[in-house]
């Protein structure tokens, strides 16, 4: 009861929003106030996100491109198929050949 009353108090809420916090993602050095915390989670490079083509792995956001290129089991056949049928110069003209 008492805690709920505290949190519903607008002035106290403002104080809480200005508490110093740090990002909980391992390796991230972001520090700021609580108010900015949610905004940081979206672009945080150290956030663990599920592989975006669904191989089931959790990958650091900053490592996702590398995962898709080199380590993703779901992407492997696409990757090999691209390499077989196109040289590097052709790949540049068609940035997403595997998804067409
Ligand atoms: Zn972070
Ligand atoms: Zn994957």
Structural account:
A hairpin with an 8-residue loop joins strand 1 (20-22) and strand 2. The chain has six helices and four strands. The chain has 100 residues and is α+β, with helices and mostly antiparallel strands. The termini are far apart. The strands form two sheets. It has a two-stranded antiparallel ribbon with strand order 1-2. Strands 3-4 form a two-stranded antiparallel ribbon. It has two domains: 1-37, no CATH class; 47-100, no CATH class. The chain is elongated. 44% of the residues lie in helices and 12% in strands. It binds zinc ion (2 copies). One zinc ion binds next to loops. This is TRAF-type domain-containing protein. A zinc finger (TRAF-type) spans 40-74. One of its GO terms (molecular function) is zinc ion binding.
Task: List key phrases describing it.
alpha+beta, 2 domains, 6 helices, 12% strand, binds zinc ion, tumor necrosis factor receptor binding, zinc-finger
What proportion of the residues is helical, as a percent range? 40-55%
Number of helices: 6
The backbone outline, from C-alpha atoms, is elongated
Strand arrangement, major sheet: 1-2
Give the total of domains: 2
Low-pLDDT segments: none
Structure ligands: zinc ion
Q: What is the CA-atom radius of gyration, in angstroms? A: 21 Å
The run of helices and strands is HHEEHEEHHH
β content, as a range? Answer: 5-15%
Number of strands: 4
The N- and C-terminal alpha carbons lie at a distance of 57 Å
Largest sheet: 2 strands, antiparallel
Structural class: alpha+beta
Mean pLDDT: 79
